[in-house]
Amino acid sequence: MASPYEVRVFGDPVLRTVANEVTDIDGKLAKLAEDMLTTMYDEPGIGLAAPQVGVQKRFFVYDYGDGPAALINPVITESDGEWLYEEGCLSVPGLAWEIVRPKQILITGYDLDGNEVAIEADELESRLYQHEMDHLDGVLLLDRLDDETRKVAMRTVREKFLGLDPSPEAPDPARSTSTKRPAASGGLFLP
Ligand SMILES: [Zn+2]
Predict the structure, then answer these.
(1) Which of 54, 105, 175, 177 has the fewest beta carbons closer than 10 A?
(2) For residue 48, how far is its CA from the centre of ligand 1 (angstroms)?
(3) Predicted TM-score of the model (pTM)
(4) What homologous superfamily is domain 13-145 in, according to CATH?
(5) Would you place residue 166 in the very low, low, confident or very high pLDDT band (cuts 50, 70, 90)?
């Protein structure tokens, strides 16, 4: 069976827009979440935010190993520490970068039954939520890189996803970053 959605990739403007609060947690949203989970598992990935399938709403689905779940109107209320991890993204496929983000967070939101939830997350789980939160704000992992790394990374993605040639004097960016595969390209860390 074909995926219900095609995951939008770098260059699609929907990935750069700030999503709107969900106002109704209803059957329509549940169906959307279900279809997004199907697409997520097909990729495969461990998380998928609504803007990644072209829906400008503040929620994401994920499966961190405890089964499928969705978080609606999420807010990160606390964060602590720093953690370096190689991060990929289904919307920037085939590339990954080491990124520092807070190690622990407290995230609150609503589940598909409309119940308020609060999750304390650490390391990989925490990273997953922070990555998906970024998608809801139109932020991509490229924006989390330091200036120097970002410059090279932007050339690589523009060439790869927008089909633009790098300037002749530029070093070959593809060689410097695209040889890195996501640590978990076996299907783990791709949100
Ligand atoms: Zn992503």
Answers:
(1) 175
(2) 7
(3) 0.87
(4) Peptide deformylase (3.90.45.10)
(5) low
